[in-house]
Amino acid sequence: MKRRLKAERRGWFNRVAALALVGAWAAGPQATAAPAPSHEVTFDSHSFLIDGKRVYLWSGEFHPFRLPSPALWSDVLQKMKAAGFNTVSIYFSWGYHSPREGVYDFTGIRDIDRMLDAARDAGMYVIARPSPYINAEVDSGGLPLWLTTKKLNNRSADPEYLRYADEWLTQVDRIIARHQLVDGGGTVIGYQVENEYYLNGDDSRTYMEHLKQKARADGIQVPLLGNHDGAYVEGKGAMEVSGWDFYPQGFDCSNPSVWKPAPDMARSRKEGEPLFTAEFQGGAFDPWGGPGYGKCAELINDSFANVFYKSNIAAGATGQNFYMLYGGTSWGWQAIPQNYTSYDYGAAITEARQFEGKYYEDKRIGYFVTTTAPLMRTDPMPSAWLDDRGLIDIARVNPETGTQFHLIRHADSTSTAQSSARFSVTVDGQAITLPQKAGTALAINGRQAKMIVVGYPFGAQHLRYSTSEVMTAATIGGRDFVVLYGDRGTAGETSFRVPANAQVRVVRGAVHSDLKDGHLSLDYTHDGLAEVVVTGGERPLVVLLADRQATERIWRTETAAGPVLMAGAHLLRSATVTGKTLALAGDSDTDKDAVVFGPGVTAVTWNGASVPVTPSGAEDGALAVTLPTPAPVTLPALKDWQARDGAPEIAPGFDDHAWRVADLTTSNSITNPLSHPVLLADDYGFHTGNTWYRGHFSGAGADVPRGVRLRVLSGATGGAFSAWLNGHFLGSVQRGDDGTFPFPQGWIEKGDNVVSVLTVNMGHEEDYQSRNENRTGRGIAYASALGAPDHAISWRIQGHAGGEAAMDPVRGPYNEGGLFGEREGWHLKPGALPQGKPVTLPVGEQAPPGVTWYRTHVALSLPKDQDTSLGVEFRDPPGRHYRALLFVNGWQMGQYVSDIGPQHSFPIPNGVLLPQGDNTIDIAVWKTEEGPGGLGEVSLVNYGSYKSSMGAPSSRR
Ligand code: GAL
């Protein structure tokens, strides 16, 4: 029984009759500029339905706040779409939009309308996740910076908290509401309430109920989804569709070949709801000093996707969202203290917008799930008999078409054994053993799962069985196509029902065919791309037999005239058909040959220009095309550096009279004990990055401190602080909170003495368990004078210039902290660095601990019709101890800690970096130790360059 939305039953919206729409809805929404019709989003035990049609939600997580170039949002969305993703799941981070209490900003890089329009234009459904609390390894779990000083109970029914949360939701829901699919404004089909909320008491249930009602009151009509792992599946505050959150390999990427087993998602099924993973592992975050994202991509690799995502399908999941699909950058001070700047996540699309191996596995599975209609309504069925006891079959069947889906893998999903098996299934009512050919078997490599399809009707055809896997089937220009694949060098066997008079032609590759009793059997070894055309039936059948490598360059996209297939090209983003011309948009590399299968077309354009076309002459309607190749890119060296002192605060004579006197006597921080007066940076409105303290004391009289003991909270491993007395270096503490600094006798002056302390807030804690942990103190928690009363030292404090009141209106509240250069806005002013002196990198001479600000300019003129992804890389000899902030054209795109790492390479999105323009690179280096050297070698790095319809955006717009 189809379960209607509660919202609908309660009459929250008027359902207008669903309009018949052109195109394959199962594959995602059509990109259209026409007046938007109304739609309905429903669900039942089997799947979500859109306008009554079943849809497999193949979804990836993407955070616009981690890509501060709106022009590139479409790039990521198009790359997702090209891999068969029909849905994007998006967190909206409250703090990113609210620089201070009562102020909300949805402009520029924070333009949610633009993001949701881009999703619609890319043909993607959206699951909106404004929470209010998102976790997401983002500062305070997305709670705003200004909330760090409020006395309230986060994530609860506390009226004070709800007042603020509602303020955010009112703002963000208004935007989401106008992009819902149901009333035609956009493609939002689901709305998640809170995030991983497990508290279960009455207060918590009241909170969740409040959030649900708030969403409805704000005009949210689409299903309300959860991500609460078994909480809120029923009772007060229950979600309409539970969502599950699975990270089976956890977050330590150090041993990427060690696997934990696949969970059985079927245990999470709830009657009346589709089985849906609100988050399933798509990578992992990596801590300061961690093994690096390369290792996370290895842990959560294509084999992981192969075994785990297919196991979810076999468990009956018809909605899978992968976290992250594109991770991006926790630029500015957005990261939590435990994580460094990159949020690459080892995801399918790298931070630098390139494809990981997993991208192609996601594509193979994505095409299959979104275009194989019988898969969207299946029930469990008995397993096939297998002659290898180490293997299992998890089988499902569509009760209407009888299509069977057999997932064959090792019983121990972590096994690395190379196995092979014969198995028996019922085909056309008869039990047969596969493969049919004597002496052959189905190869199952370690950590591999194969989805064997039996009895699959598509177009006017019927696939009896195949030991290759189905990638997709499509009807194009009056021909039925099916793409099947397997590992290079392995045998494949496929059988179709065909008319008795069928004619078979092997267009390319080595395929043996056998026609008997109305069955066509194909025998072959997967090797590149083979093709067989079968005629004589209602419509020609084109069988494309690919090895896994070949599938990487097979693309499918939808047009108003039907689907298009392409074999070749680095990426096919979109296609449109006008008359006999097929206009393709995509990215090409040095391999220029491709074949296109389009509906009744004779001419092809690629990114707006005609390309040479050769018809194959075969019954497949193929056009061979030659694509343009990219020009080589040569990167200029970064030279002509200038440098200057960046920490005048160290000098005793520095004028700090305009700094805030530390005089607060109370704090709402959860940190205890605290100095009196309070010294925590947040309490004085300094929420990000570096905060300076200057403690004055008199060198005369009885109460002359003999030293200072400091407890400084910066977060986790990545933090540090340094202290000076009257300009003399007292020491630094890294990887710890406590430092005791005796004052050498000769350094104390008779009159005014100054202790200068440089601290850093590496981000506020998340509040995963609703304990107000975002209010953990930052900066100096406790300062004791040694040998004198604490009040002998009186402190002044200075962080981000202007505090909350003066956040950068373009870059937002996380971009900068309180280094001298940041307060002076050096990073925002191109041109010469004030009082900068020429310097050569790497810096070799002995430089004292402190801050040095470096600057260079680089003019780029990268090819305009190419999408080139660049970054900035640091290289240091061992033994260097410094931390650096990297600014590109004023945007803080990286924090580098030379002796912790692991990040050395910082992708800079085009738009922040100007690919055809003058760029200013600033690096603020905080040298924490005495010892040799300062800034090391710094260079540009190229992550990939393709001839592309994206071109090279010259601004963020
Ligand atoms: C999830 C959480 C996400 C993120 C993820 C780990 O459980 O919902 O926000 O923190 O874990 O990357």
UniProtKB/TrEMBL annotation:
Family, as annotated: Belongs to the glycosyl hydrolase 35 family.
MF term (GO), any: beta-galactosidase activity
EC number: 3.2.1.23
Source organism (scientific name): Nitrospirillum amazonense
Pfam families for this protein: BetaGal_ABD2, BetaGal_dom2, BetaGal_dom3, Glyco_hydro_35
Keyword Hydrolase: yes
A GO biological process held by the record: carbohydrate metabolic process
Protein name per Swiss-Prot or TrEMBL: beta-galactosidase
Annotated Gene3D superfamilies: Beta-galactosidase, domain 2, Galactose-binding domain-like, Glycosidases
Residue ranges of domain Beta-galactosidase in the record: 374-554
